[in-house]
Amino acid sequence: MNQKDRAIIRELAAQLAEIAALPIQEEKRRMWRKLNGLKPERPMVMIDQVCWNEMNVNDELTLRCEDPECRGYEECLRRILYQWRHFPVDMVVEPFIRVPKAVHNTGFGVCAQETIAVTDPSSSVVGHHYINQFEKDSDIEKIRTPIVSHDAAETARRMEKAHDLFDGIMPVVEYGVEPYLSVWDPISSWMSVEGALYALVDRPDFMRELASRMVAGYQEMLNQLERQHLLCDSQSLIHCTGAWTDELPAPGYDPQKPRTRDLWMFGLAQMFSTVSPAMFEEFEIEMCMPIFERFGLVYYGCCDPLDLKMQQVRRIPNVRKISMSPWVDEERGASAIGTDDVFSRKPNPALLASVTFSGEQVRAHLKKTVEICARYGCPLELILKDISTVKYEPQRLWRWAQIAMEVAGA
Question: Which of 131, 140, 135, 150 lies closest to 109, judged by CA?
């Protein structure tokens, strides 16, 4: 191993270990458990999906390692340290390094065919124009059942390298798969959103069959992950929110053989933002029910507005957090959620992308949510995500974090 790279990683890891040992980390875990148990002490705040290409200040994020694997660790460590320094909100720094198991998944046999539009070459956020690959009914045969396999030798190699990098500073742990189980997000990239929405109206039987095959494929994929003991054995986050809870894992848990019922699931159907509640119920809730039923707890929703679909969302077994995107009527959403679930508010990231940044506007935006949820007794989290740009002024995000914690009463 390049000893220069090793020295860089160990120095960063030492800084991280010092932060992870602070008492505030366990205090934050406790507060997330309280929120997820529907007995919050205050609203919790998280920031994720950051425009890291715009964040580098004083070379804090500049990578110096040469080896690609070391650069991957370096990038992760530098981002955690940067966030802790500048916008920690209610993040938790864990006292260990997760090393992903070498799990291969063949997928459904279909890949997106697209052209992209780039506005900022340094940004990973691009526009997509997807080509519809399911125009004929016979195209349904393109769907394959995912096959999962584990390269144990590669996992062992990864662990050996991680031990060499981190031993004596932070423990390393093998980390299994956190399954992504959306039916409609992949379909939207295979058919385009327009193509899929038109097909729901014009070819409903075809779309039922397409979704059914995907659900069956996901079920078999989960069965394989369970049989091969390849699921993750704990979660710090579910999507972009804290996953710490006293309710998981389920009784009978064996850390060497994790099951879906020991985990959170993340569900969503973003392209269904404009469909009717009845269509949402038929094609998403009913279709995905066999998957929902397998998991211990469910976080549901993302950018899709769900305030008009709460009757359907409530049918999901073990649903605990419900996303309330920037496009919901918050009053309507809060009245439907009440004290039964976490109101997972996604504040509007566009407030960080305007020509001029207004802290007063951010404060008013967040206070409105807090006041509405207080009226209805909703457990609340504020999750800022999908941050495409801050106009290359990272201080905007730092200030947003300060305001959010003040509004949350931290």
Answer: 140
In degrees and rounded to multiples of 5, residue 19 shows phi and psi of -70, -40
Q: Please give the Cα distance from 76 to 250 (Å, whole number).
A: 31
> What is the spatial distance between Cα 215 and Cα 183, in angstroms, rounded to a whole number?
7
Judged by DSSP in three states, 145 sits in coil
Alpha-carbon distance of 55 to 356, in angstroms, equals 17
CA dihedral 267, 270, 271, 275 (to 10 degrees): 90
What is the value of pTM for the model shown? 0.96
Residue 354 sits at φ, ψ, to 5 deg, of -70, 170
Q: 72: closest CA among 51, 99, 43, 110?
A: 99
Q: Is 124 exposed, middle or buried (0-12, 13-18, 19+ CB in 10 A)?
A: exposed
- In residues, how long is the chain? 410
Question: By three-state DSSP, how is residue 121 classified?
Answer: coil
Q: Walk me through the domains of the chain, giving residue ranges and CATH numbers.
A: 3-407 (3.20.20.210)
Distance CA 132, CA 326 (A): 29
Amino acid at 311: Q
Interval 330-354: pLDDT, tens: 999 999 999 999 999 999 999 999 9
CA–CA distance, 60 with 160 (Å, rounded to integer): 28
Q: How confident is the model at residue 235 (pLDDT cuts 50, 70, 90)?
A: very high
pLDDT tens-digit readout, 186-215: 999 999 999 999 999 999 999 999 999 999
HEC string for 212-269 = HHHHHHHHHHHHHHHHCCCECCCCCEECCEECCCCCCCCCCCCCCCCCHHHCEEEECC
Return all residues near 95 (Cβ < 8 A) that are at least 6 apart: 17, 20, 21, 25, 170, 171
**Residue type, position 370, single letter:** V
